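Cross-posting from the modeling subforum.

Setting up a comparison between two proteins and wanted a second pair of eyes on the formatting. Protein 1 (sequence, then structure tokens):
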Amino acid sequence: MNTIFRKILMLLSFAFYNKLKLSKKKESEIYNVILTKLSTVKITNKNIKKTHLEFNSKMRNIIMQRNLKSFLKISFLQKMFFVHNRFFILLELLHLRKGKWNFYKHLLKESSVGDPVRYFLYPNSSGNTINHVFHLSILKDEFNIKLKSIKSVFEFGGGYGCMAKIFYLLNKNIRYTIFDTPIVNLLQYYYLKSLNLDVGYKNHRFKLQNELSKNTNLQNNKVGALFIANWSLSEVPIKFRNKFLPIINQHQFFLISFQHFFEEVNNFTYFKDISAKLNKRFEIKFIKNKFYKGSIFKKEDHYFMIGRKWQTND
């Protein structure tokens, strides 16, 4: 039923098309890197739930078939990563219009990579990009910070790379680390490399990472460092979540969004508990998402947990 509903919503954007400009030569070069990496990837249930294990298996098949040119039109990828023609997106867009519109308008500009569904009421962007920029506006407004002052980002669960692209529009010198599963890292590589960004697994401005190590976080307590987890930290086992608390502590700001429940876990209780561990170093706010209430098939409250260090030179 969800799949049918998404297809119906996509029809609202039938008049808006993307100009897919990626050359066959460049696409071939990107696939060569991805397929070489894919040959070494083993899909396991370590640190991920059953839902994400099944997703990674499907993602492997899509990559092997070299079927990424229009990956944002694939239903199961949309379900995991992409919001398109939903009414709450209009409310988020109107919220942004009431703010510094010229600033947000620049960030909302959509690319054609992945063949995204354009938002039918604002075709210069997509529902997903509008949603991401709205999230950043919450952090900006609540703490009265300049988003351009953010110098580095660590994103836990980076989707296909949409937030990374937005931060590139904010700051061409941004240092950005995406921590995700090896399979999803490959999708992020395809997307960001197709945008001509400096992306890779070692010394790159956009670094892809899928294992915890002593060097997992490159920010090292620097002012202007942001930790982001949008519906990602809230969807992995508790034991694995807790490993990221020291990493959150190393940032000046954090932005975490989550649903009240995920499978058997009460996320609201969980994040209230970890806020008690973080509040000696951070000013923390819980904000109910006033626009997003889940899908018509599953109504549920969603929240933002945002934080700012009391001492920014810590």
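Protein 2 (same layout):
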Amino acid sequence: MSAQNPEPLAVDLLWGGAAIARELGVPTRKAFYLLEHGHLPGRKIGGLWVASRQQLRERLLDDADRAA
């Protein structure tokens, strides 16, 4: 969706390290490591990691641009 019409919050949010790992295509332990060390945008809410799909995409694209 465009910036003028963002995804509904419930669709954008990924709840839990396993869901974040599936979205990224990485093992769950790697997702936890990346979240805990600040390499991925996310935050803990009530002991559960939560991340925005949009922010994950932006971070990964930004990192890919820097590596190129």
